[in-house]
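Q: Structure for this?
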Amino acid sequence: MTDVQDRAAPAEKRSVAATLFRFQSVFGLIAVFVAAIIFSPRKNGEILFVSADNLANVVRAVSEIGIIAVGMTFVILIGGIDLSVGAVLGLAAVGSAVLMVENDWGFLPSVVLVLAIGLVFGALQGVATAMIGIQSFIVTLAGLQIARGLARIWSGGQGVAIAYGDGPKEAPTSFALLGERTFGGLVPIPVIIFAVVAIAAVVFLRVSAFSRHLYAVGGNEKAARLSGVPVVRVKIAVFAICGLLASLAGIVHAVQLNQGSPNDGIGYELDAIAAVVIGGTSLAGGRGSVAGTVAGALLLGVLNNILALNNIDSNIQLLIKGLVIVAAAALQRLRPTS
Amino acid sequence: MTDVQDRAAPAEKRSVAATLFRFQSVFGLIAVFVAAIIFSPRKNGEILFVSADNLANVVRAVSEIGIIAVGMTFVILIGGIDLSVGAVLGLAAVGSAVLMVENDWGFLPSVVLVLAIGLVFGALQGVATAMIGIQSFIVTLAGLQIARGLARIWSGGQGVAIAYGDGPKEAPTSFALLGERTFGGLVPIPVIIFAVVAIAAVVFLRVSAFSRHLYAVGGNEKAARLSGVPVVRVKIAVFAICGLLASLAGIVHAVQLNQGSPNDGIGYELDAIAAVVIGGTSLAGGRGSVAGTVAGALLLGVLNNILALNNIDSNIQLLIKGLVIVAAAALQRLRPTS
Amino acid sequence: MDDLVRMSAIGKRYGGVQACHEVDFVLGAGEVHALLGENGAGKSTLMKILSGDVTEYAGSIAINGAPVRFGGPTDAQAAGIAMIHQELDLVPGLSVADNIFLGRELRTPVRTVDRRRMEREARELLDRGGVSLDPRRPVGELRVGEQQLVTIAKAISLDARVLIMDEPTSALTSSEVERLFDVIRELRTSGVGIVYISHRMEEIAKVADRATVLRNGQIVTSFDPRKLSTAEVVEAMVGRPVQTMFTTPDSATGDELLRVEGLRLRARRPRPGRRDPDGISLTVRAGEIVGLAGLLGAGRTELLETLYGVAPGGTRTGRILLQGKAIRPRGPRHALAQGIGFVPEDRRTSGLVLFHSILANTVVSSLPSYGRLGVIARRMERAASTRMADRLRLKFGRLQDEVGTLSGGNQQKVVFGRMLLTEPKLLLLDEPTRGVDVGAKAEIYRLLGELAAQGLGVLLASSELPELVGVCDRVVVLRDGRDVASFSTADSGEGDLLAAAMGHLDVEGVQ
Amino acid sequence: GCGTTSERTSGAASPGSSKSCKGADGKYTIGMSQANVAEPYRQRMDDDIKAAAKDVPQFDVKFADAAQDNAKQVADVENYITQQIDLLIISPNEAKPLTAVVKKAYDKGIPVIVLDRKVEGDAYTGFIGGDNVQIGREAGKYIAEKLLPSGGNVVELKGLAGATPQAERHEGFLEGIKGNPKVKVIAAASGDWLREKGQSQMDALLKANPKIDVVYSHNDPMAEGAYLAAKAVGREKEMKFTGIDALPIPSGGIKAVEQGRLSATFTYPTNGKEAIAAAKKILVDCGTIEKSQILPTRLIDASNAAKIYAEENPTG
Ligand SMILES: Nc1ncnc2c1ncn2[C@@H]1O[C@H](COP(=O)(O)OP(=O)(O)OP(=O)(O)O)[C@@H](O)[C@H]1O
Ligand SMILES: Nc1ncnc2c1ncn2[C@@H]1O[C@H](COP(=O)(O)OP(=O)(O)OP(=O)(O)O)[C@@H](O)[C@H]1O
Ligand SMILES: [Mg+2]
Ligand SMILES: [Mg+2]
C-alpha cells in the first residue's frame, strides 16, 4: 500500500501529458490552420482562407469523408479495416438517384432503403469477418468490387442525373434541401449532417456499454471473448454502422452533385483511413477517438484547400500530402505510452 | 518422456493433413483451373482455355502482378503492407522510357538506375517504418502519392512512347527483347522473368538465414530482437526488396506496352495483396509462402481469363471476382492450426 | 579472482516509476544467485539491463573486471551473457530448431542455412535437458510448458558464461523442474554463473547458493538461502511477516454444485498437442475448493475450457450438471449467465487489455448492471470497481491507470475481480498464481478461502503442488485427459499427488 | 476554323464577359479545372492550354486536377471562386454534378468556357467540344466503307463502363456501320481506356474468335494494346486496328498510324488552343464568343499522319 502515494504524483504528472496528447491531433489541426492563414493568398487585404464562405467550403468538402471516417474509426477501433466504404458510397448515391428519379419513390422510403442497404452490406462483411474469420482487409476488398459491380448494374452503367420537382422522373424537392445552405446561406446542410454524426458518435462512445465492448474487442479480442463480450455481435454491429454511415455519405454525395454515379467515391476509403490515423487512432485497434478523426478530416480539408488556393501544381500537391501524412503519423509516435 | 509415443501417431497424421494444407492454395488454383476447363468456350472441339498460347497469355497477363506479389509476400510476412507498389511500377515504367528514349541512355545503365530507384524508394519506406515506427500502411499510402507525383513530374504527365532502334530518341533493341516470346514464340519473356523471380524467392526463403529472420520479425518481433536478429535491418531490406521488384515489374510493364506512363499500375497493389492472401499468407505476418503467392496470382489470372473468354459482362465480373476472393480466403480458414 | 559480473549503482526509471535504484549486484563464477522480490520489485528490469535488452540506465557494469556497456542483446550475447525471458519469447511459425538457433543460424560452407545440423544439434540439446520434442515442430503448436523448455534449451545452447533465468519454471511441473535443476548443477560445476529468479520459494533453497532480495527497486538484503526458513525469506521480501501462506481448508458442507460425469470431447478438427477431456468425472460442492493436478499436458486447461464453453468445436459426450441441472456450455456469455466464471492461464494474452484502464478491465464482464438501456452510469461502475479494488487490496494509483502498469500479482487480481463482479457460483481458475509473488499469492489464497466460506465453489488447476495441497479441500489428478485419482488434502501430501500424476500409483481413485 | 458548326450567343453578351474585360492592359488570372490528368487526352488539353497561353502575355493560367472525382472538381471550382479568378475554363468530369457550381461561378460574373463535356442548362459563356457520336459514326463508316466493303468481323474494345464517351462512341459506331449489313460486331470487351487492359482483353478475344478482320477501339491506347496482343500470336497482319483521339504526342495515335500499327484514328480535339483564343476574345478584346462550338473530327490515316503530326507540334 505504500506506493499509492508514490504513484499519485507521477500519475498526476502523466495525466497532464496524457491530456495534452489526447488533443494532439487537434494541435496538428491548429498548426495546419495557422500555416494556412500565413500562406493564404490575399486579395484587397482580405485573407482569402479565413473568409466565411471559404471556411464553409472547407468543411463542406470534407463532410462526406468525415462521415465515412467516423464509421471507419469504429472499424479501426476493433482492429479491422473497411476498404469498401467508397464503393458503398457509390452504391448509395446510385440507389438514391434511381429510386427517387427512375422509380419515383418518395424521399423517406428511398433514404430508408438506401441506408438499410448500406447497413446490410456492412453487416454481411461483418459476418464474413467475425463468423468465418476472414481478415477484414480481404473481405472488404472483395466487398469493394461487389458494391462497385452492383452500383454499375443498378445504374445501368451511367450516372443517373437527379432533377427535382413533382413530376414523374423527378426527385422530391424535399431531397434537394439536403444540399442547400442554411443560417443565412452560410452553413451547408452536409456540414450539419457531418456535425450531428460526429457528435452522436462521440457521445455514443462515451456513454454506451457497447463502446466498452468495442474498445475491448480491439484491445485484446481473446480477453474480450473470455470476459463475456459478445465479440461476434460487436464486430457485425461495427461493420454495419460503418456501412450505414458510408451510405449516408452516399446520399449526401448524390444530393450535392445532383447525380448518382456508380464511379462515385473511388479512393475515398484511403482518405478516410488517413483521417482516422492522423486523428490518432491506432490501426492495431483498441485506442483512439472520434474527436481525433474529426480533427484529422479537417486537417486534410484545410491542407487541400490551402494547396488549391495557392494553385500548387497537382503533382507537387501529391508529394506534399504524402509528406504531411507521414509527418502527422510520426507525431503520433510521440505519445508517452506507445 | 512418457507421451512421446502417444504423440507420434497424431503427429504423423497431422503431417499428412499439414502437407495437404500447405498446398491448399494450389488446390484453389486447381479448382479454378478445372472450372475454367469446364466453362471454357470451345471452337471446333478444341478447348480454347487449355490451348498453349492461351495459357501463355494467362501467365503473361499475371507476370507483373506476380513479380510485385512476390515482393509483397516478403513485406506481409514481416507483418507489414506496401500500398506503394503500383505507383513505384509507374515510376519505373516512366523511368525506363525517359532514360532510354529521351536521354538516350543504354539498356544496362537505365535498368540498373531504375532498379536502384525502386530499391531506394522501398528502403526509405522501410526506414520510416522500422526506425520512426510509423505503421507501414500509412507510410506506403504516403509513398504511393509521392511515387505517383514523381512519375508525373518526370514524364511531364504524358506517357512516353518507346520506339526501338539505334538512332537518337530510340531505345536499344536489346530492350525490346524483354517483351518478346521465346521457345518457338510460345513463352513470353516476362513469364520467364516472373518464373525466375519466383523460384529465386522460393529458394531464398528456404535456404537463407535471412528468411528465418524475416519470419521471426513477422511472427514475434520482440523475440526476434532479443535473439539478436537485426530487426531494423531486416525490415528495411524487405521493403527495399519489394520496391526493387515493383520497379522490375515496371520495366517489364514498359517493355510490354512500348510505353512508360505515369498512370501505369494504378490499383495493382490491391491485386498483388489479393494474390498473396489467396495464396495463404497471413496479413498478421510470420506465416506464408511465395509458392502460395504464385498460385494465388495464377488463380486470379485464370479467373480473369475465363471470364474474358466467355465475354462475361464487366460488372458481373466484378461480382464474381469479389466472391472468389472471399471464397479463397475462407478456404484458408480450414487450416488445422489457425 | 574478479567477480564474473559486477553491477554497480544501477538505476532505471520508467516515467514515474523507479524500477531500480542504486542497485549493486555481484555474481561469481560457478554461483547460482537467486534474485527475489515482490512483483514489480525490479528483478526483470535489473536483468534486462545486464542482458542488453534495456540500454538506457544509470550505473556501471563490469564483466570479469572489465567495464562494458551493451548496445543490444547481441552485444551481451557476444560477451557471454544469455537470458531466459519471463515472457515466452519465441516465434510461433518457426520450428523448435529454428527458434533455438535464431539470430545465429548454423551455415553450410556456401552460407546457406544448415538445416540438418541445426536439427541434430537441437535434438541433442533437448535431450540433454531430458525433453523429447521433435525439433521440426513449429513452436506455435507446443504447450506453454514445452515452450518454456525450448527457451531453456535455447539459452543453454548459447554456452554462456552468465545465464539469467527469469522465472524459468512458472509453467513447469515438478518433474521438469527437477530435470532443470540437474542441468543447473551441471552448469555450475563448469563455472557458469547463474541468476535465478523465481516466486516459488521451495525452489530457492534447493538450487541457490546465495539470494538477494529486491524491494521497490532497492536491495534489501543478501543471504544464504539454505540457512533461512521460507518464512524468514518471505518476510525479507514483503517487508512484514506473512502469517499463514495457506488458509486451513474447512471441510466443505454445501450442496453439490458441479457434477461432471464421463466428460469426453472429440474435437472436430483435432489440434496437435491438445489433450481434450477423455472421460473425466468429478464433483465440486458449494464452499469447496477442488484442485486439479497433473503433469504438463495432462489436460487441466482443456477441462476448464470445456466447462466454460470455449473448447474447440466437436462432439461432447458425458454430462455436466450445475446444481443438479444438466447444462451444455456454449461460450463465455452463456457460462457467465449460468454463474460460471473463468480466470484464464495467461492473463496477458487472454485476460487483460493491458493498455486499457483498471476500471475498464474490471467492469467489462458486468457492464449491463451499471445502467439502463445500454447507457452506463459512470458513478455505478466506478463504485463497483472501487469496491472490488478495496476488497482485493489492489495496489494502484488511480482507476484510470493502465492495467499494464500494475505488477503481475495485481494484474491477476484485476482478472479475479472482474469475475467476482459477475457474482459467480462456480469459479474455474487456471494457474491463478503463475508468476505472482508470495505476498500477493497469500492474499489470493485468503480471498479464495473467504469466497469459499461464502458458498462459492472453486475448481483450481495448478502446477504447484504445495499450492494444491495447501489451498484445496480435495485434489483431482488428471493424466492424459482422464481423472486417475482423487485425494483429500487432509490426509495426503505432495508425494501422493506426484505419484498419481506420473502414473506410479497402484491403487487408483483413493478417496 | 472551317467547317465549324456553331450557333451565336443570342442577343447581348453574358453578364460575365462585359464586366471582366479590362482590355489589353489588364492582367488576368484564368483557372483551368481539369477532370483528370491521368487521361493522356486531358493532360494534352492542359498542355495545349499552357502552350497557347504563353502567347498571350496578359494571361496567367492556373491548373487544378480533380483526379476523376466530381466532388473534388466542385471544390476546385469553389476554390477558384474564392480566389476571384477572371475566367474559368472547365473540362467537367461529368455534366450534371458540375452544373450547379459552374452556374455559381457564372452568376458571380466569372466568364466560363466549358470544354469537351457539357454542363446542363446555359449558365456558361461558351462550350467548345467534339462530338463523340459523330466520331463513332465516322469510324463506323470508315470501317464499313473503306476497310470492309465486302463485309467482315469486327470486335469492339470499349472504354470504361459508365463513361459517357464510351456509350456515345458505341452508339455512333453502330449507326455508322448500318449501311453495310455484312459488317458484323462479333464480340465486345471493356478495356477501361487502358493499354494493358486492351492487351489482355484482346488476348482472350483472339483466342475466342479465329476470324477477326477489324478491331474498333474506343481510344488509341487500347488499340495499341490490342495490336500488341495480336502481334504476340503472329496475327497482327490478319486484321486492321482503328483508334480514336489521335493525340499529337509521341505515345499518341497519330504516331501509331504513321508507324503502321493502326490503320486509322480519329481526332478528338482537345480544344486547348481554341479555349485560349476564346478567353482572349472575352477578356482582352471585350468581344463575345459562340455559345457552342463543335469542332469536327478528322480522319488520320497513313496518307496524312506525318503531316498532321508536324502541324500540331510546330516546334518539334
Ligand atoms: N517497459 C516498461 N515501461 C514502464 N514501466 C515498466 C516497464 N518495465 C517495467 N516497468 C515497471 O518497473 C517496475 C519493475 O518491473 P520488473 O518487471 O523489473 O519487476 P519484476 O521484479 O520482474 O516483477 P515480476 O516478479 O512481476 O516479474 C514495475 O513497477 C514495472 O511496472
Ligand atoms: N498445439 C496446440 N495448439 C493449440 N492450442 C494448444 C496447443 N497445445 C496446447 N494448447 C492450448 O494452450 C493452452 C495452454 O496449454 P498448456 O501448455 O498450459 O498446458 P498445461 O497447462 O501445461 O497442461 P494442462 O493444463 O493440460 O495440464 C491450453 O488452452 C491448451 O489447450
Ligand atoms: Mg519479472
Ligand atoms: Mg494449463
